[in-house]
Design goal:
Blueprint: H1 3-14, H2 19-22, E1 27-33, E2 38-42, E3 45-48, H3 56-69, E4 80-84, E5 90-94, E6 104-108, H4 117-122, H5 128-139, E7 144-148, H6 154-162, E8 170-175, E9 187-192, H7 206-213, E10 220-223, H8 230-238, E11 246-250, H9 254-266, H10 274-284, E12 287-293, E13 299-310, E14 319-332, E15 338-344, H11 354-357
Parallel strand pairs: 7-11, 7-12, 8-9, 8-10, 10-11
Antiparallel strand pairs: 1-2, 1-6, 2-3, 4-5, 5-6, 12-13, 13-14, 14-15
Length: 377
């Protein structure tokens, strides 16, 4: 039996109290708040369950097995861990004394059905017009930032957008914890940061991975999520010949997303003035796709905005936006589900002529009003 199969078997054994949840394709998140409090997210809503672990010791044994699978330790010196399960689900563990009420485990699960834009259209997370627009933008090597709060579907959309990348391009993916499942038919290199585990296990950060990536002849760079000073490396790569980057960031609006990137750039060891960081972000980011979790629990693309640089009229300039798509609600169903669609605002992107000049007319069908040079072809 292969080591991966052994861990798959042992982790399944230790997690058998929540085995029914792990087997349920509709479950997107499992939250274990100590051995006696297990909750689940389905359809964007949280529910309590009557499932339990036998004791604190059995739950601790389970998370230590997960840590071993990820090459990590959970002990008095290592009280928290990010990792993944053998099936690719993301897992976070935090233990006492940091967690006052016992071991806490959060498991984020991903649906393969959401890894293509067509699937997002089918689930009403995205309109067909917006899906085609994003597909064209990926092929045009636009730098795209996916913005949203926790649990809004950023990773799913990132997976879907990555499927639009031509298979002959060399794609390098950088993640804290490997969770993206990109197009297996393409030329994809996946790199995962290592937290280190004492002297025997080396530590390598996302920033160090980024330095290596630039020497690996990437056509595309995808960063699972920007959280720290690696934002500066990503932004500078975008403006120095590595266009077409994709990443996610936690923010509530497109404006908040670029402000957050600006702040994260300032967290690097390079002592940048604020206005220099702002200029670089404004030059690098082309589109921000904003996600939201609606009151009915559904996850939708709420808006798509083009960042058009800075307003030079001000002393240090403010970001200039071209709002291209907005979600428009039209009511609710009898079951309480929000109805609506992500529709074009009528504004034209500044790069409207590029699909025609790059020979991408065949991809423009529903979006001819956004790319008028391709109309009639």
């Amino acid at each position: 039996m292969l080591p991966s199969e052994i861990y798959q078997s042992s982790i399944s054994y230790f997690l058998r109290p929540v085995g029914s949840l792990l087997a349920d394709p509709d479950v997107t998140e499992i939250m274990i708040n100590g051995p006696n409090d297990i909750r689940v997210e389905k359809g964007g809503k949280l529910y309590c369950t009557d499932l339990k672990f036998a004791s604190d010791a059995t739950l601790l044994a389970a998370v230590r097995n997960i840590a071993e699978f990820n090459g990590r330790s959970l002990d008095d010196m290592n009280l928290a861990m990010d990792g993944r399960l053998p099936d690719g689900s993301r897992v976070h563990v935090i233990t006492p004394p940091t967690a006052k009420n016992g071991v806490h485990v959060t498991i984020r699960r991903f649906k393969k059905s959401t890894f293509h834009l067509d699937s997002l259209v089918e689930t009403n997370s995205l309109s067909d017009v917006a899906a085609e627009f994003l597909d064209v933008c990926v092929k045009l090597h636009r730098n795209i930032v996916i913005s949203g709060g926790t649990g809004t579907g950023k990773t799913s959309l990132l997976n879907a957008l990555s499927a639009c990348i031509p298979t002959d391009e060399r794609v390098i993916v950088i993640e804290d914890t490997a969770e993206l499942q990109l197009n297996e038919n393409g030329h994809t290199i996946s790199l995962e940061a290592q937290q280190g585990n004492g002297e025997d296990t080396p530590k390598i950060s996302i920033r160090e991975l980024f330095a290596n990536t630039l020497r690996m002849r990437p056509d595309r760079i995808i960063v699972g999520e920007v959280r720290r000073g690696e934002a500066l490396d990503l932004i500078q790569s975008m403006i120095s010949g590595h266009a077409g980057a994709l990443t996610t960031v936690h923010a509530n609006t497109p404006r908040d997303a670029v402000i957050r990137l600006e702040t994260l750039c300032l967290m690097s060891d390079a002592e940048l003035p604020v206005y220099v960081a702002r200029q670089q972000v404004a030059s690098a980011v082309h589109l921000v796709v904003q996600l939201a979790r609606m009151s009915d629990g559904s996850r939708r693309v709420h808006s798509i905005a083009e960042c058009c640089g800075l307003d030079v009229a001000g002393e240090r300039g403010q970001y200039v936006w071209n709002d291209l798509f907005h979600f428009q609600a039209s009511g609710r169903t009898a079951e309480g589900k929000i109805q609506g669609n992500l529709l074009p605002t009528g504004k034209i992107p500044t790069f409207a002529g590029e699909p025609s000049s790059m020979g991408l007319q065949e991809h423009v069908k529903l979006t001819s009003t956004l790319f008028p040079d391709c109309s009639g072809t």
